[in-house]
Amino acid sequence: MTSPPKTSPGTPTSKPSADASRVRIFDTTLRDGEQSPGCSMNLDEKLRVAKVLEEMGVDIIEAGFPIASNGDFEAVREVARTVKNSTVCGLARAGRKDIDRAWEALKEAARPRIHTFLSTSPLHMKYKLQMEPAEVHQAIIDAVTHARNLCDDVEWSPEDGSRTEHDFLCRCVESAIKAGARTINIPDTVGYAVPSEFGALIAMLRNRVPNIDQAVISVHCHNDLGLAVANSLAAIAAGARQVECTINGIGERAGNAALEEIVMALRTRHDLLPYSTAIQTDQIMKASRLVSAITGFAVQPNKAIVGANAFAHESGIHQDGMLKNAQTYEIMTPESVGLHRSTLVMGKHSGRHAFKEKLKELGFQLGENAAEDAFRRFKDLADRKKDVYDEDIVALVDDTVGSVNDRVKFVSLQVVAGSKGPQLADLELEIDGEIRDVQSRGAGPVDATFNAIKKLVPHTAKLQLYQVHAVTAGTDAQAEVTVRLDEDGKTVNGLGTDADTLVASARAYINALNRLFTKRLRTAPEGPAAEARGGGAKSDAAASKTVAKGAFSA
Ligand code: KIV
Ligand code: ZN
């Protein structure tokens, strides 16, 4: 196995790189990732993720879609002001208003990039845009020219590129480059392509577009057929030198290509894929956990690279092989993605200092309040659980990180459960600083607990998903619960962790509610941006008028 050479992040991305094998990593967790159901992030959360992406060596961070909402605009502007080493990018449709708004948000960045797009497939042009191909072609030239007058670094994407007629695609790409685009991004918007076909599409563009060498070819693959990473790798082999991806593969519908999978495939199979990135791979777990904690989107246990089972060996034969030589069943080391072998950390006698050292070792940088909160919960856990492992600390901190500014906080829960009934929950919450309590019945202990929450915090959101998994082995393991709520098409995920499954369930539900309140309060722009985001922005605006601080009902 050969390690790829390390290149510094943030190499100017507007010109083709001197190193022909260098692949730029364009992360769109904060834009396309944030568009996936329940994944919205507030400004502070976006900043935290952006800092981790920059530290990890991401070349380009797509921070949002500035015209989509005031919240998106502010977040892109703050990321642009904060991030120094990575290029910061904002998305804009082909209109001047979109592009101006994107530039307004980006102009203070050390390395700004405007990413503008327009659909080019027959289906999108006819039904979505209701424009003739000639009009679309002219709109592309106008958009890129306008963007380029504002910003040196312009990327252009033909939305639904993989289903676009080749002659028309070539003509649009050539014109976009002539108008000043320095990156041409080919999206497989609906995740329809297969690797051989998608690789051939990139090769076709390289062969047929006369000025293609004046731009970096990028790809943006969705995962509807589970082929996003395979398509991205095929495109790289065919000459693409930028890939658009997200942490944990989050994104519209089935998601985007997962950053960690592309980067580790290039690193692990450097023999067949001789391309390098600037990603510090040992930061991958940290980024994955942060995104999962912030979005409330749990990573499936068998997810490649970052899933809880990705480096776990269960069967006797495998364990025996691992003990003799780890390479028998591990094609990459856990350390290479920032995972440390599970160790017994501390018990109830461990002090604050040791705990904070442990947090640092696990890659967490918490503020004083969050660290203190986490320490209190650790002591509580250590009182109840004999062995506290790294995974327990990670789950507990993820839970704490996701709930620092919450309006509704969990205080206590007593539940009567069992076969005799009635199942009863006695719940205490802190709501906007005031302690309140209630008792409620239900068809089971979880139902009683959720009914109690509904009594204290009335809302109309519907429960869409309730999922429990154990953080470690053993009956005293902590439970990690995911709750998904939907209110008028606004979906949010909540995560909660505790040694008591019912407490974890209450925490997850409360976490989801807090996210819902934040989402309701986000404002939206005038104009057509809601269409670009599938209508979400418009309904947020309507909701923000009906919900004032202190009022919980929708
Ligand atoms: O999937 C897509 O086509 C996109 C574009 C805006 C690049 O997200
Ligand atoms: Zn996309």
Task: Report the count of strand segments.
Answer: 16
Structural class: alpha/beta
- Globular, elongated, flat, extended or rod-shaped: what is the shape? globular
Low-confidence stretches: 1-16, 523-554
Radius of gyration: 24 Å
In round numbers, the mean pLDDT is: 86
List bound small molecules: 3-methyl-2-oxobutanoic acid, zinc ion
Percent of sequence in beta strands: 15-25%
Classify the helix fraction into a percent range. 25-40%
Strand order of the largest sheet: 1-2-3-4-5-6-7-8
Q: How far apart are the termini? A: 56 Å
- Main pleated sheet: 8 strands, parallel, barrel
Q: Helix count?
A: 18
Overview of the molecule:
Helices cover 40% and strands 19% of the residues. It has 554 residues and is of the alpha/beta class. The strands form 4 sheets. The protein has an 8-stranded parallel barrel with strand order 1-2-3-4-5-6-7-8, surrounded by 7 helices. The protein has a 3-stranded antiparallel beta sheet with strand order 11-12-13. Helix 3 (96-106) runs parallel beside helix 5 (133-150) and helix 7 runs parallel beside helix 8 (228-237). Mean pLDDT is 86; it is low at 1-16 and 523-554. Bound molecules: 3-methyl-2-oxobutanoic acid and zinc ion (ZN).
Short description:
This protein has 554 residues and is α/β, with parallel strands linked by helices. Helix content is 40%, strand content 19%.
List the helices and strands and how they pair.
Blueprint: E1 24-27, H1 43-56, E2 60-64, H2 70-82, E3 87-92, H3 96-106, E4 112-119, H4 122-129, H5 133-150, E5 154-159, H6 166-179, E6 183-188, H7 195-208, E7 216-221, H8 228-237, E8 242-245, H9 259-268, H10 284-295, H11 316-324, E9 344-346, H12 352-361, H13 368-384, E10 388-389, H14 390-401, E11 408-416, E12 423-431, E13 434-442, H15 445-456, E14 462-470, E15 479-487, E16 490-498, H16 501-521, H17 529-532, H18 536-546
Parallel strand pairs: 1-2, 1-8, 2-3, 3-4, 4-5, 5-6, 6-7, 7-8
Antiparallel strand pairs: 9-10, 11-12, 12-13, 14-15, 15-16
Helix pairs in contact: 1-2, 1-10, 2-3, 3-5, 5-6, 6-7, 7-8, 10-14, 13-14, 15-16
Bound molecules: 3-methyl-2-oxobutanoic acid and zinc ion.
